[in-house]
Specification:
The chain is 36% helix and 27% strand. It is an alpha/beta fold. It has a seven-stranded mixed β-sheet with strand order 3-2-1-4-5-7-6, with helices on both faces. It is globular. Bound molecules: S-adenosylmethionine.
């Protein structure tokens, strides 16, 4: 990875992911997690202030040491005991059926092998365990989707591997989950970048 990927992208991600519109989505989703929780692609730890006291243990996985350093500092501020693991979601270093819940926010767009990562999340969740997700992805409108496919090859190298055109619900189902609920909508901003899938799925 070059200097841009190592030093610029983590700062851009941390800055971009702090938007108030995203904070509202985090505040609605993250408090739903309970018990032993895995956050996949924890990034700079912007979800940490929203975990409830019902979380017994939290593990955060991310392959970026730079983002994990920011997450460590956010964990101290949130006074939350979190174990941060520098690893890719495609090979989670946990035993089968270890977690009650998993959280993924704006992460499935960036994982190189999203299907493989979701199968790993399914493996490490207890049977019936819940995956809570807030992800952006493929829009239902043909014109927006065409722009998403056109823009992704240009956008991906600038934005830490982010794909605009992933069908998030299909990927989750294909990994063996049953979607319990999903809400779709555009957030404010250019449509190719803002089509959301928010909800939960059962392992
Ligand atoms: C747009 S950021 C979102 C960060 C964080 N989830 C949030 O809500 O602020 C995408 C995250 O996915 C992480 N990521 C990229 N590839 C990954 C992989 N193979 N496994 C786990 N996380 C990955 C990146 O390092 C980055 O932290």
């Amino acid at each position: 990875m070059g200097l841009y990927g190592r030093f610029v992208v983590p700062r851009l991600i941390n800055f971009a992911m702090k938007q108030s519109m995203l904070r509202e989505r985090r505040a609605a989703l993250v408090p739903r997690a309970k018990g032993t929780v895995l956050e996949v692609g924890i990034g700079s730890g912007l979800n940490l202030p929203y975990y409830s006291h019902e979380v017994e243990r939290l593990y955060g996985v991310d392959p970026s040491p730079q983002l994990l350093a920011m997450a460590r500092s956010n964990a101290r501020k949130a006074q939350l005991a979190v174990e941060l693991v520098c690893e890719s979601a495609e090979r989670l270093p946990f035993a089968d059926a270890s977690f009650d819940c998993a959280i993924m926010t704006w992460t499935l767009c960036s994982i190189p092998h999203a299907g493989r990562a979701l199968r790993e999340v399914h493996r490490v969740l207890k049977p019936g365990g819940e995956l809570f997700f807030a992800e952006h992805g493929l829009a239902p409108d043909a014109r927006v989707a065409a722009w998403q496919r056109r823009l992704t090859p240009l956008w991906r190298p600038l934005a830490g591997g982010c794909h605009l055109d992933r069908p998030i619900d299909e990927l989750i189902r294909a990994a063996g989950f049953e979607i319990a609920e999903v809400q779709n909508r555009y957030l404010k901003g250019p449509k190719p970048f803002t089509y959301m899938y928010e909800g939960s799925a059962r392992a």
